[in-house]
Structure formats: structure tokens, C-alpha cells
Amino acid sequence: MRERTALEENIAAIEQIERDLADAVELIALGEAEGDASVVEEAEESIRSLQAEAARRQIEALLSGEADQNDTYIEIHSGAGGTESQDWAQMLMRMYIRWAERRRFKVEVMEVTDGEEAGIKSATLLIKGHNAYGWAKTESGVHRLVRISPFDSNARRHTSFASVWVYPVVDDRIDIAVNESECRIDTFRASGAGGQHVNTTDSAVRITHIPTGIVVACQAERSQHKNRATAWAMLRARLYELELQKREEKAMAEAASKTDIGWGHQIRSYVLQPYQLVKDLRTGVQSTNPQEVLDGRLDPFIEASLAQRVYGGEVEVEDID
């Protein structure tokens, strides 16, 4: 049996929403005619759910960029601040893994560089799923955390920064030429928590593209050959994403944010003390439940960013809790 295309799936979903809406309206009329408030309330709740589903479908229909349907890499780097920012980077890595799992995407950890005492210096995730890049692309930027430090014996409040960089997996439809003479290849021993799969040889691979300064690394496999092949694919993806930036002014502005992981470049603030608040500084969307956001509930922020990116101007702001 032929699989339905994404367009056919969207059309079928919209037709289903229309049928469900007609049923709910008919149910309201029936409930009002019979004076049954519970039936009316149930139908109204159904309409609210349909409204939310229609909004999600609308956003998904807007993911029409040439790479939006592709899998994606999410790269995380700790900012200045040592253990504090490295712990924050690890929290972000967990947040994106949980977000991907909520969306039923598959996640592979391509590379992790551990911090000296706690947390991570950097990590690269591979997120696999339909429209993975389209959904994740607006997460690129600097993320700011404010909390009482668990590493400070005086229980002082600290501000930490980490950067997130999102770029699409390049598939066979996209031809990106890489001159190997312009690249430096290094091998190193993979880091991690250890266990039966820990590498004991220099199987991890890092490739530096000298003209652009782009660095990619892979340690997902125990074979250096496989890690090298994956690293080349990651580099092609980064170079392709660089080309996309040249066509899109907003993406170019986001690229500049990566050069300085600190004040003035953040896209979102996560405040755990003295109050509880996560606020997106681009759209104004906020949540008073940071723990839920850090557990992967990112879609309200992402949907608002996508809508703003497509339509421009202000988006409707409300507390998402």
C-alpha cells in the first residue's frame, strides 16, 4: 500500500477537524435543546481541543523550508563560568532529549565533552523525525539560567549561559562539496560515563573546517572509521546551514549570537530563584513552571517563534501554564 505524503496527511487531518467541529456544534445544539448543560460543556471542551489542534496543524503547514522536513543536529556549548555553565549545558541537553521524546522523535548522542567537575562543555544530539529541523530551528541562540547555585557553599544566586546551535541533516537531495585540504582532522579518546561501551582507543573524530572555523565531532560509534564518516556528514550539514543563513536575514542575526555566549544575545531566560519563570525574549511567551519546561515542554515557545518568523511582528502573548 502506498504511504501517504505529508500534504495528504495534512489534508486528511484538516478534513477530520472539520468533521469533528461539525459534530461538536451539532452536539451543542442538541444539549441546549434538551437543557443538558453537561453535554454542552463537553462539546465546548471538544471545540477548544480542536482549536489547539488546528493551530498546531497551521504551524506545521508553515514548515515549508527546503530543509524543514529533515532530521536535525542540536549542538550545545557551555558559556564562560566553569562548572555553573557546564551544569547548565547538561540541563539543556536533557531538556532537548525530553522534548524530542515528547514529540516521539528518535535521539542519538553524537558527541559529549564532559566538564571538569560536573556537567558538560559541549554535546551534539541527532534528532530524527519528520520536520525535526523545522520544529527545532528557532532554538538556536543563547539560553540564560538564574538560580541559587548548588555548587556555592554560600547559596548565592548565579547567572549562567549556554548556546544552542541547530542545523539540518543534509540528505541526498542536497549537494555540498567539501575540500578536504581545507580541513584538519583530529582523533581523541571518547568521554562519557563509562560502562561496557566505553571506548579505550582514540576512536572519536573531530574535524575543523579552517576557512569558516566550523568544528564538528563524533564519538557515537566504537569504530573510528564510522565516526569519521559521520563527522564528514555533520560538517556538510553545517556548511549547508551556513548557506541557508546567507538567504535568510534573521538566521544571519542568530548566527552572530554564537560568537558571544553572554549578556545581550540570549533568546530565552530560565529563572528558578527568586521566582519561577521562563520567558522567551523574542516573543514574550512565558511559563511559571520552569521544571516542566526543563522536562521538555517547549512546543508553546517553538510554535510562537515559528509564527513570528513566518508572519513577523508581535505574537499573542499568554502564560502557557
TrEMBL record:
The gene is prfB. Methylated by PrmC. Methylation increases the termination efficiency of RF2. Residues 189-205 form the Prokaryotic-type class I peptide chain release factors domain. Transmembrane segments: none annotated. One of its GO terms (cellular component) is cytoplasm. Belongs to the prokaryotic/mitochondrial release factor family. PROSITE patterns: RF_PROK_I (PS00745). This is Peptide chain release factor 2. One of its GO terms (molecular function) is translation release factor activity, codon specific. Peptide chain release factor 2 directs the termination of translation in response to the peptide chain termination codons UGA and UAA.
